[in-house]
Amino acid sequence: MWGLCRYPNVALLNAMSTTPAHRISVAPMMDWTDRHCRYFLRRLSRHVLLYTEMVTTDAILHGNRDKLLRFDASEHPIALQLGGADIGDLAECARIGADWGYDEINLNVGCPSDRVQSGRFGACLMLEPDLVARSVEAMAAAVDLPVTVKSRIGVDDQDEWPTLSGFAAKMLDAGASRHIVHARKAILNGLSPKQNREIPPLRYDLVYRLKAEYPMLPIVLNGGVTAHEEIAAHLQSVDGVMLGRAAYQNPGILTAVDRYYFDPVSEIRTQENAVYEMLPYIEKETTDGVPLRAIVRHMMGLFQGMHGARAWRRYLSENAHRNESATNVVLTAMSLVRNKMAAVAE
Question: In sequence order, what E strands does 121-244 have?
Fold first, then answer.
């Protein structure tokens, strides 16, 4: 019942049943797609490809790898996104990621934050395509996994199409398995990271053109996609669609992904079932000392657009400090949603 979204083109269902994992993915998002978030999102879709937050090579080489790289086996398929610009370090971190069991290694060439720029990685690397190509080549040689790149269509005053086309050509020659394109330019001088997600215009036409220009390179479109109707339209021109904020702020969009894009006979997931499936995880993690708020903050948007959504968010927000009764907090919030739904149905 809950989470069922109208699919815009039922005739496509059978054709999509054998598509690879990258057909639908959830973007790497700093401060959002941590292991708790990914575990939760996996309750909504068994097949969508999940990405870690960007992890810098310095952090992996010198930091707490268990904290940075640990994930639950149920999170597969899962990709590790790396941030860095040193070829040797990237190759070594790709090997480490492979050893930890990730299914894909991705290089961040799209993040526009000041912190990323100061470290000479992220979107500013679009100004150094030869360095990115050598990095991809070294990473691909180091692991027996797909090595992919996530970029913008250009940065600052770069001419968009020549920049994107030339960059993709180098990635293909370097051995990239897939190119994920956030269909906006990154303005490194003058816009904040938040503004860079909203102000530069979306140029889906350039991503479509890129796929037509390089049919042998799988192309995934990212940026501004919020509905299944949009996903279906994009999939007429590219190989995959990556959801970002839409999947985080309204995770219910994932409940029907498995049936729509992977297996037409799979069940439609429900928000309610996802909550119940989270309870053992919440019990274990909070018993191990993880604050309840660290988990439920990712679940706030679960009932977005549904009756009871506000009561759900409010109760979790006001009670997320109660680790000693963590599962009861979530169950009580769930009961408020059920009561609201029942009242409307009467």
Answer: 147-151, 178-182, 219-222, 240-243
